[in-house]
Amino acid sequence: MLNRNNLRCLLAAAATTVLTLPAMAQNYAQDSATIKKIYDNALTSYESYENLRYLTKNIGARLSGSPQAAAAVEWSRQLMEKMDLDTVYLQEVMVPHWVRGDKEIGRVINSKLVGSADMNILALGGSVGTGGQGLSAEVVEVKSFEELEKLGKKKVKGKIVFFNRPFDNRHLHTGSAYGEAVDQRGGGPIAAAKLGAVAVLVRSMTNDIQDVPHTGSTRYEDGVEKIPAAAISTKHAEQLSRLLKDDPSLKFYMRMTSQTLPDVLSYNVIGEIRGSEKLDEIILVGGHLDSWDVGEGAHDDGTGCMQSIEVLRVFNELGIKPKRTIRAVLFMNEENGLRGGRKYAEVAKAKGEKHVAAIESDAGGFTPRGFGLDGSKEQLQAVLAWKPLLEPYGLHDIAPGYGGADIGPLKGQGSVALIGFKPDSQRYFDYHHTEIDTFEQVNRREMQLGAASMASLAYLISEYGLSGGTAKVQK
Amino acid sequence: MLNRNNLRCLLAAAATTVLTLPAMAQNYAQDSATIKKIYDNALTSYESYENLRYLTKNIGARLSGSPQAAAAVEWSRQLMEKMDLDTVYLQEVMVPHWVRGDKEIGRVINSKLVGSADMNILALGGSVGTGGQGLSAEVVEVKSFEELEKLGKKKVKGKIVFFNRPFDNRHLHTGSAYGEAVDQRGGGPIAAAKLGAVAVLVRSMTNDIQDVPHTGSTRYEDGVEKIPAAAISTKHAEQLSRLLKDDPSLKFYMRMTSQTLPDVLSYNVIGEIRGSEKLDEIILVGGHLDSWDVGEGAHDDGTGCMQSIEVLRVFNELGIKPKRTIRAVLFMNEENGLRGGRKYAEVAKAKGEKHVAAIESDAGGFTPRGFGLDGSKEQLQAVLAWKPLLEPYGLHDIAPGYGGADIGPLKGQGSVALIGFKPDSQRYFDYHHTEIDTFEQVNRREMQLGAASMASLAYLISEYGLSGGTAKVQK
């Protein structure tokens, strides 16, 4: 199917502004064979999937600062120690230690229509509690910050602000819908508190209409009162909204005993295979080891961590000696602080490390669709030039895009390309930050295809770098 | 991103043998806008998903000849009657009526290693029973028909033949692995009986290592003894294989009371929107209404049926008046006889109906990847010419391929193109033909994207036909 003419054609179509052909795999046949081996190996191995089972089932949820997070650090360190890597080490980082406390209570009370009705709520990460007695107040529903502003102090003071703007389901990529809605979760408490609100309810960040509430980080601001904030399940958000239409004076009772404790020492977990030719040039593959404290952190981001380790296993098992260094990094504290990502970048800078690329997997262990690249045009062209090698594996969607939260702080260090692994996005926000983000939701093959995709891209970068150039396309 | 140059380029790359440009959507902007509306509508609607819930939860499994199959026929007829279509009708077809009987018993007995051990088995569709007493015999394991032939009558006579060739997990598309392994299920009983075997066990057709056995059709041959045949779960297939290595003289007890009853009158369910310009040119969208008798027939093929009806709903709701006729066909008896597909083609031929294309969805309600086309080069070129309109929705994989079982009998009638809708294949054989093929395994968005993909392709075919030509690419 592919010949030189349509290969050129594909390249040209993919990167219309290029005049010279970007760097192409010098040896198409050999690279194609290596990538096939990578996929064959990943698809027939159960090791990484069993590792995920251990992480999710035996360790479970692992919020930063928790004993389970410490267990995950030690377990994954030992896992990599057994792998015959060139080095495995921990990188110290102080992390926030937020605890949820008792199971939350959320309840519509004195409603003219239903009397009282329990509602599924879940404290947002970082939220203060309500005190042991809980609080009750009238609810004012808004769909936007503009709407909230218009209401003003008079209508907001003393009330619970209910942010209820749903995901726009028309977005093909669910991340786009999340991106548009998540300001409510992050910025809701500050905006509401400024107008005198006593608490915040935020519609859960999901495409689905579900019973389970979705937690996630929220923020406070110095000088603005810290008010309790909880997610409410989309099903109950719809119900509450309906009730409010007919009975705006109903009250909502909420009780949360969440609190923030002193910071805790934790670690990024790092393992690497050193490059055979350019060992100072690093290709990072990573995910985050911490998770929220509900569910098992399977898709978010157990799969990303296990895939990153799997890249090293596949390289080792196939005897691939990468020219550049391949480093797996399991970041701590992506969910509520990003301290691990920041620390990693800080240390890298201090050491003068040279990262060629950082590939993050933090969008779930679903069937791969491609990569998003946050880097230069030349770097994008270099990756696009490999499309003929990657498309047979369903990696069609290679385009400028978001790298990832953990690798974000590396931006600007040298010429590192930040690359986000893009799996299919349809199911991610069904599970994201909930008690149903469990091992059972992960399909072994989908997860392994992700690992193979990351390994294949890491291999190509390790062979050819990302600096572009005018190497001839040979096939 | 797209301009005329790289559009040409994509076209040329996609169909290297074409000298003239194939028929392209004459009005790119308008078609693009219509397709966007189709996706927007499908992604924001819950109707089809709720219909699937009814079909799977209130009617459930619906094997041909069962009361549930009759209920599914009547329910889906009424569903389409309510839709303001131009016509809704039933097409009579006599179908086989096989019943499973009591829950199967499968058990390793007198094993030196484990004594006795229950094994999850499930009668293959069409299988005879064992008689109420069951049967027990030694087991001979084979991986292929060649291996079986080599064993010969002497080593097979009086035994249970255990076909245990696993899926080759290296295949990216799970359907390829299924295609390579399923000869064991279909042809096992005949081959084993010819050598004097008393029964057959077949490793379940799945990529996964699971507890649940997968049923599916098997065959008999006139003049060859009909022996009982059951699927065994992959987990127990592995266990049985291990036991046999150390203890080849263990026996296996199986009891199945399945039987075939007289044929039953059933129906294909058909609804259509007549074409505004070429009403005699039919574009079929279809799935099969019957399912196996375990689980709920959700992915196989409740989703395909609901997607086909959804195509009509979306057309109606958006006020799209197709130039050619769009006909949804819910075929009966795909699973164990294909009588519905054969009858449909027979009637179409007798009536002199002209099918331009038949699009079948019978590979699960997963995220769309593309279409496989069984037709002429010109027809393939015509569809490839629409890639710029379809790729933004993840429909990259448009290539020659398999249409589908139900539409297969239409082949050769006029110049009909048989088109198989291709969703992502990774999870399909986790559920296929099992008790876990349930509504809960279906993601609304993934299913709706499939419906939108089918509707978009049906729309383009209804606008432009598939006859190729040299229309200019305009954008």
TrEMBL record, chains A, B:
It comes from the Bacteria. InterPro entries: CPQ, PA_domain, Peptidase_M28. The keyword Zinc applies. It holds the Pfam family PA. One of its GO terms (cellular component) is lysosome. GO terms for biological process: peptide catabolic process; proteolysis. Residues 148-240 form the PA domain. It is found in: Endoplasmic reticulum; Golgi apparatus; Lysosome; Secreted. Its main location: endoplasmic reticulum. Residues 268-450 form the Peptidase M28 domain. Keywords: Carboxypeptidase, Endoplasmic reticulum, Glycoprotein, Golgi apparatus, Hydrolase, Lysosome, Metal-binding, Metalloprotease, Protease, Secreted, Signal, Zinc, Zymogen. GO terms for molecular function: carboxypeptidase activity; metal ion binding; metallodipeptidase activity. Residues 1-25 form the signal peptide. Homodimer. The monomeric form is inactive while the homodimer is active. This is Carboxypeptidase Q. It comes from Pontibacter chinhatensis. The lineage of its organism: Bacteria, Pseudomonadati, Bacteroidota, Cytophagia, Cytophagales.
